[in-house]
Amino acid sequence: MINEVAARFRQQAEASEAAAAAACVIEVAHMELAEPTIEQAFDKCVAAGAKAVVLHPFFLSPGRHVSSDIPELLAAAASRHPGVKWKVSEPLGLAPLMPQLMNDAVAAALQEPEWQGGQAVAAAEGQPSVAAS
Question: Which InterPro entries does UniProt cross-reference here (predicted)?
Fold first, then answer.
């Protein structure tokens, strides 16, 4: 899934004049258990000409990985490339558009004819009811 998300992000970045002007490089990286690693992706960005690297964690919340593990791995990768700036962006769950994305997903689900379990309960018109855990 992460590769598909990155491909869509690349398409959007290529269509953006600001990204094109900044010579945006987008690489996928994994924190652990898979490749490319953060170090490998950082190296690829620098090899492609990046002078600054922003790692966007594909996480919903700012837990230990986002606040500690990922910055440590990114700092280690950056230490091999003096002069290249780097930072970690906020996780997806803190994005200002997240509530709208959630609303869109719930609205789309309400339009689908297939339901699980008992009968579907109609929400007040235009006001879907959502429970999240």
Answer: CbiX-like, Sirohydro_Cobaltochel/CbiX
